[in-house]
Structure formats: structure tokens, C-alpha cells
Amino acid sequence: MFHSTQDFYIQRLNTFSVTGCIQIVFITLLSRISENKRESLMTTFIKSFNIKKRDFVRAGEASINIQNILKSLDMDPKLIRRIAICGYESEMNVVMHGGDGILKIEIDTGKIILDISDNGDGIENIELAMQKGYSTATEEHREMGFGAGMGLPNMKANSDMLSVESEKGRGTHVHIEFNVS
Amino acid sequence: MTLSELKDILEASILVGNEYLNMEFDKCRASDLMSDILAGPAEGCVLLTGLTTVQAVRTASVAGAGAIVFVRNKIPSHAVIDLARTEKIPLLTTHFSMFISCGRLHAHGITGPDGMR
Question: What's the farthest any 2 CA atoms get from each other in chain A?
Fold first, then answer.
């Protein structure tokens, strides 16, 4: 039994705390969740997922989990698709090119943020990496259906803001924002 | 057309998802490259691919494709079939090549994701 809309959403979000997460933080803020519901939610939702280097079997699990969270909040399916694609491409990038990494989603007032960081080799030339078709992928990556140099361009095309910080040998940090109207 | 009709046209077998045989499809995406599928519209499409890893199912789920047909008689592992069951994505396998599969579906009115024929 939910005493308020806020309780209802918090209950929904809490259902995702049981699988595979390492962190859930609720911060009290005023937030709108769904255009349809036009309801207020006194919560910013943050959840983080571990990504393991070369773990091709689990690659994509976090994005599917994020997709399910957003579906449970009745968000716009097109927005969910854009976020899931960015999450999935970033997961694959970490698995293929990064070291171990963390994918974090933050659902906040009018904005959803994906924040991906890894401790891998880093990107030598970010400008080149942002170009369609540029790839340093191996044959193994291509056998998984990825590695055609479309990851970062695809993420940029599906986001409202994307920034990449990287240094050779010092890992990569990708910050992606989506506006929620 | 329904998934059942599509199955007959491709002389395919259902690996999982018998309960979805009445699903309707009028668009198709075909690729072994999952980034390619993610780069364009795929909602409600049937996905033809030769890739049988979990990434094919996760790509279909993220991109919104409604079903996957594996070409060239390819059959995925049990883990992939179990994942598809969880994600509610029917899986089929056909003995036809990608080229012939596309041609057969095109000849029966299936379009690309943008409605082009």
C-alpha cells in the first residue's frame, strides 16, 4: 500500500536494488518523472553497475537493467531507447577497450545522466575516435558484432550532451546527458 | 504479416517464443554488425542476423526489435535462448542465407525500417 505517489515511485525504484548494483543513493530533490503522469517525485535516483574488462557474456546487462528501470517509470519509449543505446555502446567500449569500469545512471530534475569511467589504456586521439568508422577493435571484437568504429558517434547522435575525457594509460571518462521534457 | 507467416516464408523453426506467433511484422533489419542495428531505427522490426551471441538478443532488446531470425542454419547456445525468453524476444532459425532470407521477405511485402522497398 502506497501512501503517496512518492512512496509508489520509491517502491518501484527499490525493486531494482536487489540485483547487481553496488550503490543506491536517494537524495531529496523535487523531480518530474513522467510526462504522462506529471507527478512530483522527491528523489534523485542514482545507481551504479560494475563492468568487467573482456566480459562479453555480461556486456549489456547494465543497459538492459537501466532500460527496465526507465520503463517502470513510464518514460518516453524513444528517450528510453536513446539512453539504452548509449549505455550499451559505452558498456561495449569498456569491455572491448577499457579496463574494469563503472556505469552510473542518475535520474534528476529534467535530466538523466550516464557517467562511465574505466581504468583502461585510455584513448590516444579522441577526435579520431569520434569519427565514424575509426576503430582500434580486434577480430574478437568484430566477431561479437561490434568494433566498426560506430560506438562514440552513435552515442553522440543519441544524446543531448556528450563529453569524453581520456589520456593514454590513464583510463577514460564519458559523461552523457539527456534532457527530460 | 504475422510471425507465423514469416516463419513459413523463411521455412524457419522456432527456438523460443511460440506464444508470439501472432505478432505482426512489416519491417526488417538485417546485419551481423550490432552497432549498425543500434545506429538506425529498429522498433518493431524483425532482425535477421548470423550473430548468435547474447549480444544479438541484447541489441534487439535495446533497439526494440521484436524478433530475431538466425540465418544459415545457425543455432545459439542455451544461454542465448534463455536470455531471449527473459527478454520476451522470439528466436527463429532458417536454413536460408541472409541474401535469400531478405529476398523472400521483400517479395512478400516486408520493407526496410523506413518503409522503403
Answer: 55
Residue type at position B79: A
For B56, the closest chain A residue by CA position comes to A145
Count other C-beta atoms under 10 Å from residue B75's C-beta.
Answer: 12
- In this prediction the pTM is 0.85
Beta carbons of B58 and A67 less than 8 Å apart? no
Residue type, A140: E
Q: What is the pLDDT of residues A122-169, one digit of tens each?
A: 998 899 999 988 888 888 888 888 888 889 999 999 999 999 999 888
In this complex, which of B33, B49, B62 lies closest to A63 when CB atoms are compared? Answer: B62
Q: Is the pLDDT of residue A4 over 70?
A: no
Find out whether A118 and A51 touch, Cβ atoms under 8 Å. Answer: yes
- ipTM, 2 decimals? 0.91
Q: Which of B54, B62, B74 has the highest number of chain A CBs within 10 A, making it the mutation to test binding with A? A: B62
Per CB-CB distance under 8 Å, the chain B contacts of A146 are: 33-35, 55
